[in-house]
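Collaborator request, handled under Task 6.
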Amino acid sequence: MQGASRDALAAVREQLAALAGEGADLGTAGEGLLAVVRLLDRESALRRTLGDPTTEAAAKNGLLDALLGSQLDAGALRLVKAAAAQRWSRSRDLVDGIEVLGITALLLVADADGSLDRVEEELFRFERTVAREPELRAVLTDRALGDDRKAALLDGLLEGKAHPTTSRLIAAAVLEPRGRTLEDALAEFAGLAADVRSRTLATVTTAVPLDDAQRSRLVASLREQLGREVQLQVEVDPRVLGGVLVRIGDEVIDGSTRHRLAEARRSIT
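Structure tokens returned to the collaborator:
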């Protein structure tokens, strides 16, 4: 998001934090917010109305009360009204912002019960599994395959193996991609999990597993460079030969032996 939308998202995230501080049922609120996302994705006229900065907040609130007041959790409705009151660069950004609130609400529940680290790790591992298994990816992203069959497949893959929050987020990524690739949706949700505790997510690829001391040194180095706490997600890939490859958002820090050898070959030729 850019400009006004970025500021709007920051403002509604503060509203979510306030709701959490009041002891609201964030699980119910999160599911309600994601239901609103599905509604706004379908109803373009409603999306444009709520995202129109020239429409008074009172008029938007009245519309939301009439449409959703009897169906939506009070906390979710409060957050949707707060989002509609903001100025967004595009009406689509409003919907994206509500999705961020919904996913974050579910992640806050996981944080409260001490399972957020597990959820982050499971999201990362599932994304890596999808990347390694093109047949699985093809099935999960097949538009001709019904959502009920995809949901049944996910149940078979995840039931009893993943935290309920992980399963819910993976289902959202598969069944409600909203124009994203499956990998991008999973990476976005993992990034939101890191944001819950004000951490930067760093994906690290190494030739061999890192021991605890190596992980600690790498975290300390990245923390010093970024000025922020860092959450590592480590993948082992023998193709890097040695060293580490670090991805932070769109930035790549390539300290792998494979990269250095490639650089040497280029300099020779």
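The cover message to the collaborator said: "The chain has a mean pLDDT of 87. The first helix runs from residue 3 to 21. Please let us know whether this matches your experimental observations."
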